[in-house]
Amino acid sequence: MDPVLLLYLSSGLLLGWSLGANDAANVFGTAVASRMIRFRTAATLCSLFLLAGAVVSGAGAAHGLGKLGSVNALGGSFTVCLCAGLTVLWMTRVGLPVSTTQAIVGAILGWNWFTGSLTDRDTLIKIASTWVACPALAAIFSACLYGLLVLLIRLHPPHMLSLDRNTRLGLLLAGMLGSYALGANNIGNVMGVFIESSPFTAVRIGGFTFTAVQQLFLLGSLAIALGVFTYSRQVMLTVGRNLVPLSPLAAFVVVVSHSMVLVLFSSRTLEELLLRQGLPPIPLIPVSSSQAVIGAVIGIALSRGLAGLQLVQWRTLAGVAGGWIATPIAAGLGCFVLLFFVQNVFNQRVQVPRNHVLDAPVLDYLARAGTLRGGVGSLQDREIEGELAFLRALREERPLPRKVELEVLQAARLVPTSIDSARFERLDTLYLSDVEIEAIMTLEGRSFQHRWQLEEALADASPAWRRASDTPLLRIRGKKIDEKLDYLCRFFRITGKEW
């Protein structure tokens, strides 16, 4: 790998290391603290299953985080991850199970603020709501599961040795599941900001295509594994011993409850199942595993009644909660300040400008979609750099409802792409179907200025790229088409080096 590229990715590796050092406690901390599993065994299993979860199932939650802010230059990605990693490292040094999600969200908001990029309010609200829902769900799961297991043990008392053996096995299995879920859900925190500006290209190994995103996630998960081995013991003890004294059975319940919450927010299968039933889906976004495990521990205390609440170390809990509040603020402010130095002192590009233009094709497209009818006065054919600058100009010329503003913004964005046949052999044949790839090949040599132009050309080439009426099942298909179009825009984009 180019040493310069490795330097840029080093901040993501630092964040991965920090996540491993901090969040491994959420998976095996209670088991290690209760002396049911040795630290080295826990670290090994955690690392292996983290890596599998990140590479196999990490794309869903990472895509959700990307909607908050699309960091599209390696200099910006480096700075965002560096600030988030340093914030997590600082919290880890004092032994607090900090939220890595809050750190990366705060840093992305700092990047949006510095670059004048639009923050997706809906995505921000979804992510912030999980900071309440995540520990609450974990507490409910753990209280119910713990009460059920205690009842079963009372009704059918097992032999002490059998209970010990089964609990130890349960902790191992729950830890493996939790590690997989942690990798799948939180790898987006580590490498998600590099997806838009990824320096990798897909490679074929035998009959398997190893995508650029999978290469990023593999690199990040290796950094997480290193953090697990080198620096996670102290936070494991904070979670497993200093907050609420836990029995081995309670430790098992905490890990299972934590894992259930992470699976809820990273499972595409569950999302599709809910949509098929006409129910609102759970957003696929990285959630705080630290908040999940703390909520699960508190759930155990609640299930024990007043006696359990008296065992809670409220001073430790207050310190943890204070860390959650300080994390996004510190990461956001630190990122804003550091971006200034990276851009103005070290002369590194922290953003690739996003230009917008309301030319005749865009206005025709918006009219056909029923989004915008009529002219836009002096704004027509003006190329404007930056999302917020474009929105300000649009509001001055023609005030519109916010939903319409965002649709106009998306349509006007310049995303120059060229369908180059030399790149066809590197297309991800696991991500794209044969029919979809055949449609792409029919566009050989054509260029597009806007994303919607590429979408319309693909829809004309094959029904596989067409949207249909808005039903729950077709919303699933529409979301997949959106993600694949984002992939193609990155894959065929017309640009020079962005770092």
3D structure, described in words:
This protein has helices at residues 3-33, 39-57, 59-66, 74-93, 100-115, 121-155, 160-191, 212-231, 233-242, 248-264, 268-276, 289-303, 306-311, 314-344, 360-368, 387-397, 402-412, 434-441, 451-461, 472-491, and strands spanning 203-205, 208-210, 355-357, 383-385, 417-418, 447-448. The chain is mainly alpha-helical. The chain has 3 domains: 3-344, no CATH class; 355-412; 417-491, no CATH class. The protein has a two-stranded antiparallel sheet. A two-stranded antiparallel ribbon has the order 3-4. It has a two-stranded antiparallel ribbon with strand order 5-6. A hairpin with a 2-residue loop joins strand 1 (203-205) and strand 2 (208-210).
Give the strand order of the largest sheet, numbering strands 1, 2, ... along the chain.
1-2
Please mark out the parts with pLDDT under 50 across 5 or more consecutive residues, or reply none: none
Tell me the strand percentage band: under 5%
Oligomeric state of the chains in view:
single chain
> Count of DSSP E strands?
6
Protein structure class: mainly alpha
Annotation field: number of helices: 20
Question: What global shape is seen?
Answer: globular
Helix content: 55-70%
Query: Mean pLDDT, nearest integer?
Result: 82
What is the C-alpha radius of gyration, as a whole number of Å? 24 Å
- Gap between N and C termini: 15 Å
Largest sheet, strands/sense/barrel? 2 strands, antiparallel
The number of distinct structural domains comes to 3
SSE pattern: HHHHHHHEEHHHHHHHEHEHHEHEHH
